[in-house]
Design brief:
By secondary structure, this protein is mainly alpha-helical. It has eight helices and two strands, in the order E-H-H-H-H-H-E-H-H-H.
């Protein structure tokens, strides 16, 4: 199960639309074209209206795609479903649990930390690099 999250770059959208990361939109359009599908063809396979697929490709959807739609898109376009989910602004249930646990443990500090990371991309990059290094097995 995946949980919807808001892309931090779009914290305060001008409209009420949920903004899907443009990389998701580009990936979807490129993969569809590479497979030779029209929007109507792919929409039929995925069982969504072609106008919704068009909105996803043009980054104009009112909401991010549901899990089953992402899985179907990934299947028909031969893309990695988990990567596509993250690009669509969704995270795994396991990752959502980690965030929830941290929020419970650090109720007052978590919002401050998340806003700081959102507003300081350089800091976010340093934290991510350190976390990645921590995950690497030692030789």
């Amino acid at each position: 199960m995946l949980t919807s999250v808001v892309n931090p770059r779009y914290d305060q959208p001008v409209s009420r639309e949920v903004v899907v990361d443009q990389t998701f939109s580009k990936r979807l359009r490129e993969a569809r074209r590479n497979k030779g599908f029209s929007q109507r063809d792919l929409a039929g396979l995925v069982e969504v209206d072609y106008t919704y697929l068009s909105k996803l490709e043009n980054n104009r959807a009112d909401y991010p795609p549901k899990n089953d739609v992402i899985r179907a898109l990934a299947h028909h376009l031969e893309l990695d479903a988990e990567e596509l989910s993250y690009l669509a602004g969704r995270i795994t249930a396991e990752d959502a649990k980690v965030v929830q646990d941290l929020a419970k443990t650090h109720q007052k500090q978590m919002p401050v930390l998340l806003r700081t990371i959102r507003d300081n991309p350089e800091l976010a990059q340093r934290i991510l690099q350190e976390a990645h290094q921590e995950e690497q097995p030692e030789d």
